[in-house]
Design goal:
binds NADP nicotinamide-adenine-dinucleotide phosphate, five-stranded parallel beta sheet, FAD/NAD(P)-binding domain, 17 strands, 304 residues, elongated, alpha/beta
Length: 304
């Protein structure tokens, strides 16, 4: 029986683990893929205090080493169901079943799909959701990036060091990313490295066994054009990973509702980071959520 099981080893889960382990709790972290969550696919982190510049994978590795050197137990298993009805929570994975007094949900979010023809068929054959993972495959090639948030702008910056040319396709004429990134992207546009395709939507990914182009609809003029590209990087935000949880309250966008102490509507179940209905989804806020939750979990364990 664990005092707490933490699902997810992104910054929120790892911070919660760090605090609970230091408080002497018996905890287990369950992770279905690799530690770090979305940090791993972030090229440049420039807004995490203490580091003027660090790549996300290095930050993830440091956090992971920090918790494992303290003796935190991490198991690489995928959670398939959770029974949260009783005081003792039962967590089933693809390999085992565990019991715990408290659960911290830090499952984060997954890439949103465009849901257009050709996208699924050509995923990993030119369609990618991770420029830092797959960008190197397109050295001196022509690529497109879809989106207008920080992720898409960062993807363009990363790809500008690899690809010959980048089309940045956005459904509006204004980017929602940070000004500092917009300025850098605009510089690259002026250098001819990036072409903006605004007020436009990718409506089809073209190619038989690999991407050869995209069909793009201009929403103002209602005309379509075909742009020849070797890859399409989709960076249109994320959706919360909540499929395995029943009985929790969600907001309209599907994020798990929490109070300011990271309590969910179920006693003994806490949640934080990108999967929760937080205002800001950053590494630093995810860490803050993990720390806040650890305090609430400690208090709960003292009383129960
Ligand atoms: P985001 O900020 O939600 O941006 C998603 C973008 O994709 C928006 O521009 C949106 O257009 C567009 N979009 C959404 N659905 C679409 C669809 N079906 N078709 C076409 N376009 C679509 O997501 P994100 O860029 O992944 O960032 C997520 C969070 O992580 C944000 O809070 C961001 O600041 C943070 N982040 C921070 C950093 C950093 O600070 N270094 C790096 C990466 C991410 P509209 O603008 O029209 O809605």
């Amino acid at each position: 029986m664990y005092d707490c099981i933490i699902i997810g080893s992104g910054p929120s889960g790892m911070t919660c683990a760090l605090y609970l382990k230091r408080a002497g709790k018996n905890i287990l972290v369950l992770e279905k893929s690799m530690p770090g969550g979305q940090m791993v696919i972030t090229t440049n982190v420039e807004n995490y205090p203490g580091f003027s510049h660090i790549d996300g994978a290095s930050l993830a590795t440091s956090m992971f080493q920090q918790i494992t050197s303290l003796g935190v137990e991490v198991r690489f298993e995928e959670v398939i169901s959770c029974d949260l009805k009783n005081n003792i929570k039962v967590i089933k994975t693809d390999k085992n079943q565990y019991e715990c007094k408290t659960l911290y949900i830090a499952t984060g979010a997954s890439s949103r799909l465009l849901n257009v023809d050709g996208e699924k068929r050509l995923t990993s054959k030119g369609v990618s959701y991770c420029a830092t993972c797959d960008g190197a495959l397109y050295k001196d090639k022509i690529v497109a990036v879809v989106g207008g948030g920080n992720s898409s702008l960062e993807d363009c910056l990363y790809l500008s060091n690899v690809a010959k040319k980048i089309y940045l396709i956005h459904r509006r004429d204004e980017f929602r990313g940070d000004k500092v990134l917009i300025d850098r992207i605009t510089d690259l546009k002026e250098q001819g490295k990036i072409e903006f395709v605004l007020n436009s939507q990718v409506v089809e990914v073209l190619g038989d066994d690999k991407v050869t182009g995209i069909k793009v609809l201009n929403k103002i003029f209602s005309n379509t054009q075909i742009i020849e590209v070797d890859a399409l990087f989709v960076a249109i935000g994320r959706t919360p990973d909540t499929a395995i949880f029943e009985g929790l309250e969600f907001d309209d966008a599907g994020y798990i509702k929490v109070d300011s102490n990271k309590n969910t509507n179920i006693k003994g179940v806490f949640c934080g980071g990108d999967v929760s209905n937080t205002h800001l989804r950053q590494i630093v806020t995810a860490c803050g959520d993990g720390a806040t939750a650890s305090l609430s979990i400690n208090e709960y364990l003292t009383k129960h």
